[in-house]
Design goal:
Length: 253
């Protein structure tokens, strides 16, 4: 998803006219955008060849990718310089849609209960991009972090299933048990536990949950975003070494 993030940044940044090709010039943006799109096309081709190994989490990420591509498309359609690239984006969106449909049908046969539980996240139209970019608040970065507990990772999906199930039953407050609230609001979490916490509150925002816990949705999302950004900056300083590079890509979705 970091590749799409770069595309969105380039399409939203101001242009500077010059007789020379500058990094932020339309010409250079076109070159870089073409490289990014080619990488995404190759990634989709790889997934198509290996679709039997895809999981529900992969489908959720690809749905987000679709939304980001459509956001790029809406910007590029107004610019004649990006007409050819925009055609590539349209084809990529269509290819993704077919692949996601094929993969979900396969998962329904292999993991019917799991797919049913996460069905809202897989539906077209569930995901929405934020209206504007925000800066992280460095004052919210933890002074001390705690390594994740394997037991926590084993039960994290249960909390999301609980959240989704309550919303399916038209409970606008959205249920959150005491144990889940403890998990998703724990301070000092790191690595994949931290990204899970952010996703939980992101899901609740998309579901328009209104319970007491979710009244502080923005606070928790700002808190977790600030610490995830710090982790990404540390990974960059360390040269994206293992296992930092995998976590970096997860945090950049």
């Amino acid at each position: 998803m970091r590749l799409l993030f770069l595309l969105l940044l380039m399409t939203s940044s101001p242009r500077v006219s010059s007789s020379f090709v500058k990094p932020d010039s339309p010409e250079m943006k076109g070159v870089v955008s073409s490289i990014i799109l080619s990488s995404l096309e190759q990634a989709v081709i790889f997934l198509e060849k290996d679709y039997t190994n895809t999981e529900v989490n992969d489908m959720v990420s690809l749905r987000i990718l679709q939304v980001e591509l459509k956001a790029v498309q809406k910007i590029w359609i107004k610019d004649p310089l990006f007409r050819i690239l925009n055609q590539k984006v349209e084809k990529l969106i269509e290819k993704l849609d077919k692949f996601i449909g094929k993969s979900i049908n396969k998962l329904k046969l292999l993991q019917p209960t799991y797919v049913q539980a996460f069905h809202p996240l897989l539906k077209p139209g569930f995901w929405q991009l934020p209206c504007q970019w925000i800066r992280t608040n460095t004052s919210m970065i933890y002074d001390e972090i705690h390594h994740e507990d394997a037991k926590v990772l084993d039960v994290r999906d249960n909390c999301i299933v609980e959240l989704l199930a309550s919303r399916i039953n038209e409970d606008w407050s959205c249920s959150c048990s005491h144990s889940c609230e403890t998990l998703v609001t724990k301070l000092g979490a790191s690595n994949y536990y931290l990204s899970y916490q952010l996703r939980y509150f992101l899901f609740s925002k998309m579901l328009e949950c209104s319970g007491d816990l979710f009244q502080r949705n923005k606070h928790y999302m700002d808190l977790f975003c600030a610490n995830m950004m710090k982790m990404n900056q540390d990974a960059e300083l360390n040269g994206y070494t293992f296992p930092d590079h995998g976590l970096f890509m997860t945090n950049s979705e």
